[in-house]
Amino acid sequence: MDRPPDATIDVPVDQDTIAATISRALRTGSGPLNLDAMGDVAEGLRGHIALLLPLAREEAGRLWPGSIEAHRLRARLDGIEQQYRRPLAPAPLAAHVQVQQLARDCQWLLARHMVETRW
Q1: pTM of the prediction?
Q2: CB–CB of 51/9 below 8 Å?
Q3: How many C-beta atoms lie closer than 10 Å to residue 91's C-beta?
Q4: Do 101 and 83 meet the contact criterion of CB atoms below 8 Å apart?
Q5: Rounded average pLDDT over 52-63
Q6: Per-residue pLDDT tens over the stretch 58-88
Q7: Residues near 31 by Cβ (< 8 Å), separated by ≥ 6?
């Protein structure tokens, strides 16, 4: 992904598609570890994270900058961005762990987004 995750994107969030990708990613270890399949899933997750991360950063910008909540949220979002930017590991087990982390990060971002859009 060459596009930074903080670029503004005017695409609707499709919760069902994102949830399906997360589910697929979390099942990658249920059989033999296939590096190509994990690469496909990782790219899908990165696309979803690229959509959700700027929305979460925008939300974080509305918090009082000196608050503990704002600091924790910014730290979590920075960690997600670091993971997002990391290329997929060449070793199958390491790639599997990485895909699982991307899935959890995407799941967290989606959950936050869904809560924020309900208000």
Answers
A1: 0.88
A2: yes
A3: 12
A4: yes
A5: 94
A6: 989 999 989 999 999 999 999 999 999 999 9
A7: none
